[in-house]
Amino acid sequence: MKILVLNCGSSSLKYQLIDMDGENVLAKGLCERIGIEGSNLAHSPAGGAKHTVVSPMEDHSDAIRLVMDALTDPERGVIASTGEIDAIGHRVVHGGEAFAGSVAITDEVIKAIEDVSGLAPLHNPPNLTGIAACKAVMPNVPQAAVFDTAFHQSLPEKAYLYAIPYELYEKYKIRRYGFHGTSHRYVSERAAAMLGKDAKDLKIITCHLGNGGSVAAVDGGRSVDTSMGFTPLEGLAMGTRSGDIDAAVIPYIMDKEGVSAGGAVSILNKKSGVLGLSGVSSDFRDIESAADGGNARARAALDVFLYRVAKYVGAYAAAMNGVDAVVFTAGLGENSAQTRKAVCSYLGFLGLTVDDERNAQRGGEFVFSTDGSKVAALTIPTNEEIVIARDTAELFA
Ligand code: AMP
After folding, report:
1. Ligand 1 geometric centre to CA of 16 (Å)
2. Of all residues in the chain, what percent carry a pLDDT higher than 90?
3. Does 90 have pLDDT greater than 90?
4. Mean pLDDT of 1-30
5. Annotated catalytic residue: which of 148, 219, 225, 324?
6. Can 62 be counted among the known catalytic residues?
7. CA–CA gap between residue 177 and residue 21 (Å, rounded)
8. Does 153 sit in the ligand 1 pocket, CB within 6 Å?
9. What is the distance in A from the centroid of ligand 1 to the CA of 249?
10. Which protein residue has the closest C-alpha to ligand 1 atom 15?
C-alpha cells in the first residue's frame, strides 16, 4: 500500500510518498511560494539527487499536479502512475473537541474541520485547501485527516479547563487543546518500545523542542497534560513565542505601545521567545553560539528556555505522581546534547543521571541516562509522517 502524506501550509505543501510494505519513504519534497511569484518544487527521490522545478503554482491544485508529475516522471519519478497511490493522509492542525483520533475525510468531516477553523485561522484553512485540491486532482483516492490536537483529547477536565467563567468554555470552547500531538504520541510509543515495556505501564514526559516547543505528560499511553493551550502560544519559551505570560501584560503592551490586541499578540507570537530576549536570532544554534561567545542576553534567553522546560518536567512528574522516562525530540531535542544535559541537570532530585558519553551521540534513537538512573532519558527523532501514513493505511486497509 502506498500512502501520500501531505502537510499543507498557506503557501507551502510538504509531501512524502511512503510504501507501507517496509515503511520505506519513496520520495519526499516541498512546494514553496504557492500563489506567489517564484513558486518552486524541491523533489527528492529515495537514493536520488534533489531536483528543483521552478514553475508557476497559482494554487494548491497546481502544486498537487506538479507533485504528481514529479512522482511519475520517467527519469526521477518513483511510481509509474498516480493510480499507484492508494490513499492520502493529511496533517490537520486543529480538530477541536470533535476529533480524538484520525478519520476518513467525508463532507461531514470537512464541515467539522471548517467549524473549528476559527481556533486555528492560520493552519486549518490551508489544510482544507489541500484536501479540496486532492479531491479535484485525484477524486477517487481516499483521504484521511490526522490531527495535531487528537492525542491530547484524553486530557482530564482538570488539565484542560482554564479557571475562567465556565460559560466562556461552553460558548466559545476556550480550553487547553495542546499541539504536536502526533509527535508526542510517536516518541512516547517509541520510548516504551526502546525500554522493552508496554506503554500502559509507563509514565513518560515528552519534550518536543524545536522552533516551536511543548512538553507532554503521557500516563499509560494517554496524554494527561501538555504545555501548549488554546493556541500554540502557551507553555515553553520558544524561538519567537513568549510561552506562559500574565494575561494582564497584553492590555499593558497595547496601552504603552499603542497597538491593537492583535498587535500585542503578534509581538508575543513573533517577536518574543529567545529571539525577543536575545535580540540575536530565533534559531537555537545562533543563540547557543552567541551565549558560548559571551553574549549575556543570549545566555539569559537560553537560561529562561531551559529553566521553563525543567519546570514543566517537574510539574508533570507531580501531575503523574512519578515519571519513568523523559524523552527529547525535534530539532533541538534531537541534536543539542548541551540542551539535554542542561535540562537534565535540574532533574537530579528525580534520580535522573546523565551518561555524558551516551549523550554526546549524534543521530538516531538512544538512551543517554546512566545504567543506575532511576528515570530513563532518551533521544528519539520524531516522525510525524509515519504516524500519519500508518493511521491512513489502517483506515483504508
Ligand atoms: P524544528 O522546529 O524541529 O525543525 O527545530 C528547529 C530548531 O532546532 C532550530 O532553532 C535549530 O536551531 C535547532 N537545532 C537544530 N540542530 C541543532 C543543534 N545541533 N544544536 C542546537 N540547536 C539545533
Report:
1. 21
2. 97
3. yes
4. 96
5. 148
6. no
7. 34
8. no
9. 29
10. 331
Locate 128 and state its grid cell. Answer: 482544507
Query: What is d(CA 206, CA 230) in angstroms, rounded to the nearest whole number?
Result: 19
Indicate if 197-379 has the same CATH topology as 2-147: yes
Amino acid of residue 264: A
What tens digit of pLDDT does each residue of 211-250 get? 999 999 999 999 999 999 999 999 999 999 999 999 999 9
Per-residue pLDDT, averaged over 145-169, amounts to 98
User: Does the structural domain 197-379 have CATH classification 3.30.420.40?
Assistant: yes
Task: State yes or no: pLDDT of 119 exceeds 90.
Answer: no
- What atom in ligand 1 is closest to the CA of residue 211? 2
In this model, does residue 10 exceed pLDDT 90?
no
pLDDT in the model for residue 286: 96
pLDDT range class, residue 259, cuts 50, 70, 90: very high
CB of 336 shorter than 6 A to ligand 1: yes
Q: Please state the length of the chain.
A: 397
Q: Where are the domains of the chain?
A: 2-147, 197-379
Ligand 1 mean position, distance from CA 283 (Å): 7
Q: Report the CATH superfamily, name and number, of domain 2-147.
A: ATPase, nucleotide binding domain (3.30.420.40)
132 CB burial (10 A radius; 0-12, 13-18, 19+): middle
Q: What's the whole-number mean pLDDT along residues 293-297?
A: 98
